[in-house]
Amino acid sequence: MLLVDIRETIIRMDAALERGACGRLVVYDNQVELHDDDNSIISVLENAEIKVSSWCENGELVYHSITHQEALTVMSTDGWPLYAGKTSIVFQGDDQVRTNAKKRSFQQEYER
After folding, report:
1. Residue spans per domain, the chain
2. With contact defined as beta carbons under 8 Å apart, do 26 and 47 qualify?
3. pLDDT per residue over 87-100, tens digit each?
4. What is the CB-side half-sphere exposure of residue 47 using CA atoms within 13 A?
5. How many beta carbons lie within 10 A of that of residue 27, not counting itself?
6. I need a labelling partner for 40 at 20 to 30 A (CA). Which of 25, 26, 54, 112 fits?
7. What is the pTM of this model?
8. Contact at 8 Å (CB) between 62 and 54?
9. Among residues 5, 60, 50, 61, which one has the least CA distance to residue 25?
C-alpha cells in the first residue's frame, strides 16, 4: 500500500511541475473526464493532451501520450475502454485544465 501511495505522489508531483491536472480517467457515453482526489470532475476537451501513467516491472514510470479519441475508442480484449481508471495527467490549451475546463463536484453530479 505504501508503494502505491508513493507512486501516486510521484505522478501528482509530475503533474504539478508540468502545470497539468492529475486524476483517474473516466470514459463513458462518448465522454472523457478526469476525476481527482478532491472529488471534482473535469471534462477533458477534444484537443487535450493526455498522458497515461504506467509502471514497468523494473519500477520505472512511463507516460503514454494519447488523444481524446484514443481514450474513447481503444478497447481492452474484454470490450472496455482500455485507459479508463488509469492515473493520468491532462493538459488543455494555454490555460491549463483547472482554469478553463468545466469543473463540478462529484457529489453534485451524482445527486441528480
Report:
1. 2-104
2. no
3. 999 998 655 444 43
4. 7
5. 22
6. 54
7. 0.76
8. yes
9. 50
